[in-house]
Structures are given as structure tokens and as C-alpha cells.
Amino acid sequence: MNALAPRGGRVGGVWMTLFGIAWLAVWTVQLTPVQLLLPLQLDTPGGPEDWITGVVWSGLILSIGGLAGVIAGPLAGMLSDRTRSRWGRRRPWAIGGTLLTAGSLLLTGTASEPVTVGAAWVGVSVGIAVLSAALTAMIADQVFAQRGAASALVSSAQAVGIVVGVGAVVLLGLGIGASYVMLAVFILIVGIGTALLLPDPLPTDLVHERSRAQARAPWRERLGALQDRNFGWVLASRLTVNLGNALGTALLLFFLLYGVGSPAASAEDDLLVLIVIYTIFVVGASLFAGSLSDRTGVRKPIVIVAALVQAASAVMILISPTFIGTAVAAAVMGAGYGAYMAVSLALATDLLPRPEHHAGDLGIVNVSANLGQLLGPLLGAGLVALVGGFWLLFLVAGILSVLGGIMTVLVHHEPVRPDASSRSPRRAAR
């Protein structure tokens, strides 16, 4: 444990590796059902009215799960901030979230009706929200000079997780039930293993006393970074850009089947190809942009440009709604989204004012992204049903991405000193 503890605000390669693997598991078990398993469970092939019914059910279930996560994530984060056990503050919540996620995945795999699928998926969403809140807080707790790099691991793991999960299901020819069992075992092993291995230092006496005092403070003072205007604009931007991204990705299997016209026999293979392309560019862009923001101390301009690049991908699909056009758009979207998610998380972490609120505040940061991803399918289903096609879906996706970039313009953020090591920029200024 001591060998992995941060020194001088920096963490080593082993810490980064374990942290990245933990997020890989989180995204794999969340996005594999979103991209592939839930659509397969809920698809009703037939005439136009039949397949649209499947799209609507998929959007509704994912959105209800997202709302559950909205409540669970910040709540778990606030409770984690006040936890003082011999196991640490974050570790008990990471393990609890892992167990809930694994059990709920098994229930989702055995469900057959939309209502029971939705009920089980709520458990998955809550478990992931709790686990994510604990993991994200570790960036603010332990990392200062490498926040861009650590945040890049979160966003790049998101893209790799889709490939790992969907690739395993498609290439191994797994059925729906077997796929959920595989995901449950994966999150159990990785989630509990990394939670036990990653350091979880207890807060200093000053932070602990502040946390106890905060519990007795008036409700307005318990809002943490939510009271900060700049932090609020970052949250709004992440919600909006993620909503735009979800519109372009969450219903991709349905788009291939009924928008592009891919044969049902090859649609899953086509989906995997697009996901691989998207992943390569997400990983490359997130690692490059995160590292660049650490070296230069500049975050805000990178976030704005990345949101606009994502918007350009939606325009490409509108112009060329073919498989080749979609593949090119997937590369552009991956580049924009990867850079945006890596640097916007580092930007949000820079704006945190108080260490006693780290998990609670960053739980809300997670929610802003996850809510966009999980509300996207519901909004997308409504847009598809409204016009009986997909053009309005991608038009709105592009508009939302541009709006997210505009919101970031309103954030006041001074460049971070690249040599910062022991304090966050926000607290150093205080």
C-alpha cells in the first residue's frame, strides 16, 4: 500500500495502471449493455412501428437508470467524504458499488420483459454510480500535477471498455445471459481487486474537522462547489456535450439496421468495426490532450475546440448517412469526445474549492456526464419516432455539442502551473 501512495502530489505508473484498469471495468459493464445487449433484448423486428417500439423501450429504460444514478452518485460521494473507517473513505464504497453492480447484472441477464429488464438495470446504474464516485474522488485526493493524465485514463477507458465488452460478446458468440455473467465476473474481480490495492489515505485532521463542521452547517453551505458559477458552467457543458455524444452513439445499432440498411446478419460486426474506429481516436485524443493540458497548464481552449470537433462529426453523418460516412464520422467524434472528456474532468477538478467536498462534488461531475449519456437514448428515441428516421437525431446532436462548447467559454479558469505538485491551483490561490 505504501509503495503506491502519492508523493509530492504525484503518483507512479502502478497507481495509474490500477486506476485505468478499474475504469476499464466500469465502462465495460456499463456500455456493453447500452450499446449491444439491451438493444438486442428489447428489439422488436418487424414493420416500422415494431422497431420504433424497441427504440422507445431502450431509451426509456436507460433514462430511468440514469436518473437513479443521478441520485445515487452524489449521495454516495457525500457519505464517502464523511466516512472514517479503518478501511478508508473511498474503498468501502467502491467495494459496495462493485457488489451491487455485479448482482444487478446477473438479474438483468435473466430478465425477459421490458419492465423487469428496466428494474434490474436501475440496480446496475446505481452500483456504477457509487463505484464511479469513489474512483473519481481519488483524483482530487491524491493527484495534482498529473490530473490531465489521470482524467485521460477515465475517458480513454470508456472507449476501450466498449471494444472489450462488445468484442468479447461478438467474437466469442456469447448469448445474452452468458454475456451478463461474463460482465458480472469481470467487475467483481477488477472492482474489488483494484479497490483493495489502490491507496486510500485517511483525511488530515483539518479536513476531517471541516467535514464534521460542514455536516452541521446550513444547507446552503453544504452545496460545495455547486455554489461556484464557473463550476456550474463546467457541469452544464459536460451534460450538454455528453447528451450530444449519446445521441450519436447510443442508438447506433438501430441506425445501422434501419438508417444505413445493414443486413441483420452483419449489423453486429459493423457495429464492432465502428466501435474500434471510435475507440482508437478516443484513446489517442484523450491521452494527447490530457498530457498537453498538463504540460501547458491550458485546459479551457482545448475543451472548446474538442466540443466543436464532436459537432462536426454529426454534420458528416447528415451529409453521408452510409457505412463509410459513418466510419469517418466515428473517427472525428472519437477525437473530439476523447479530448473533451479528458480535459473537462481535469478542468472541473481544478475548480474544486474544498477537500472535504471532493467525492460529493466529483460525484456531481460524474452525474453531469452520465446523465447526458443516459438521457440521450430517451431523447433520441423521441426524435426518431417524431420523424420516422435518424436525420433529426444527428442534427440535434451537433447543435448540443456546439452549445456545450459555448458554455465552456463562460468559465473563468486561470492556466495551471505545470510544476504544481502539492496543492490544487484553486486552493493554492486561497
What this model shows, in words?
- It contains 15 helices and no strands.
- With 430 residues, the protein is mainly alpha-helical.
- The chain is globular.
How would you concisely characterize the structure shown here?
The chain has 430 residues and is mainly α. The protein has 15 helices and no strands.
Give the structural class.
Answer: mainly alpha
Distance between the termini: 32 Å
Sheet with most strands? none
Taking pLDDT < 50 over at least 5 consecutive residues as the criterion, the unreliable ranges are 205-211, 215-223, 420-430
Rounded to the nearest angstrom, the radius of gyration is 20 Å
Helix content: over 70%
Number of strands: 0
Number of helical runs?
Answer: 15
Give the CA-based shape: globular
The overall pLDDT, averaged over residues, is 82
- Strand content is under 5%
Written as H for each helix and E for each strand, in order along the chain, the element string is: HHHHHHHHHHHHHHH
**Oligomeric status:** single chain
